[in-house]
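Subject — a protein and its fold
Encoding — discrete vocabulary of local shapes:
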Amino acid sequence: MTETTAEVLAEVRGRVGLITLNRPKALNALSLGMVRSLMATLLAWKHDDRVLAVAIRGNGREGAFGAFCAGGDIRFLHQAGSTGNPQLEDFFTEEYTLNHLIHHYPKPYIAFMDGIVMGGGMGISQGGSVRIVTERTKMAMPETAIGLFPDVGGGYFLSRCPGRVGEWLALTGDAIGAGDAIAFGLADGCVPSERQAALWEALATQAFADAAAVEALVATYFVAAPPALESTRPDIDAHFAHDSVAAIVRSLECAEGNAWAPMTAATLRKRSPLMLHVVLEQIRRARGMDLAADLRMERDMVRHCFYLRPGQSETVEGIRALAVDKDHSPRWNPARIEDVTPDMVAPFFESPWPAHAHPLATLA
């Protein structure tokens, strides 16, 4: 059986459901149509006895693999957020529902996280039972660069990284490779990029006794991937343990002895000051939440990112500067980390809906 749409390809071969994201020119950035197609496919396969497991990959510019998913379609988000398009609300509600389904999927879900894996791409991979990285993987949650926050369950999975890695990744948006993704609990194993096609074909053609046998096959392709940031971990844990964004930045700017700390401070100075404060609060709240509660909190937050301050959305401005006008000079408001007050941050965590009417009320 093969089902083809412009942006998502889905087929069952042997005992495995195979999904290919097929928007390579946009690095497979997720549109609302793609979210709906993925949801429909996974729901159909959930109770299909022929399907023992699901595997997902992205098409790159030169064919299969090479790019997994660069996130959500931020041009759409800018347009919708600027014009009041109601599909903006649908996008986040349906995307977060998809993220939740993947985390709770009753069958093995194998994500081939080759190349770019950012934002929404993390949302459709982190819930997987087998998360594969390659030597080409560039993994990040870079939302503070566009005045947003690491959503799609980012509060949940980043807050569960060791030490203060979650705060560092969420605030800076820095990218990591295969070895660090595994060390930080964001991937399960590394497969050489040139071996992915063989593994994909093996999944489609081998006879499997059960779902466990599918996962066991994948594990035979894993190779060692040493972390690159092992020596940096003590610095990450020391600086990003501080109580506030201002204290984190002061600590980094006053550090001596290596180039990492001042470079990291300089990165933070470029991000949205308001959203840095919001994100630090998000990660620390999420440590005590289950996934459903975190996604409901993030759904509240993303609504506020677009509508809390009419005409002054950090997210609309951030996307404008990065992807629309491409001047890379966002006009953040407030402009400085030190000018953000608790009263500016608190409203992001107040739900605009009563609990019974929340768009994600049914998630458990």
